Amino acid sequence: MATWGDLATFIRQSYRVVRDSPDEIRIRISFGPDEDTEERAQVMIIQREILDQKEDWVQIATPFATVDQVDLLSVLEEIGNTIVVGGAAVMGQHVVLRHSLPLINLDINEFLDPLELVAGAAEILEQTFTGRDDY
Q1: In angstroms, rounded to a whole number, what is the distance separating the alpha carbons of residues 122 and 63?
Q2: Beta carbons of 28 and 81 less than 8 angstroms apart
Q3: For FRET with 63, which of 26, 71, 86, 102 sits at 20 to 30 Å CA-CA?
Q4: Phi, psi of 55 (to 5 degrees)
Q5: pTM over 0.90
């Protein structure tokens, strides 16, 4: 998988798409005790980025709180101690967990593993720091 078009096609075929535009796809990943029971969910934003106006990258991001809902130092300490992939950022009023990957020569598992790790980590952070399921 080496192009944004290839990745976008795979995402559309494999996930529940909630928003689709040329350079961004949003999907909903559900977390429940089994396949038939949907308890919590995380909206994942998968976006094409062009690095240095020449290299295609994909960014995986998901909000898990608003800035006013959390103590940012506590969030960063938790991420530093427990999260394997991704990093925290403030985008607008949202605190997001995100991870970026180069598209050139990208294998599907190199996308799927970080996607699942970012989604699961953001879900835990959201539950831990807000006690809610807003995203």
Answers
A1: 7
A2: no
A3: 102
A4: -105, 130
A5: no
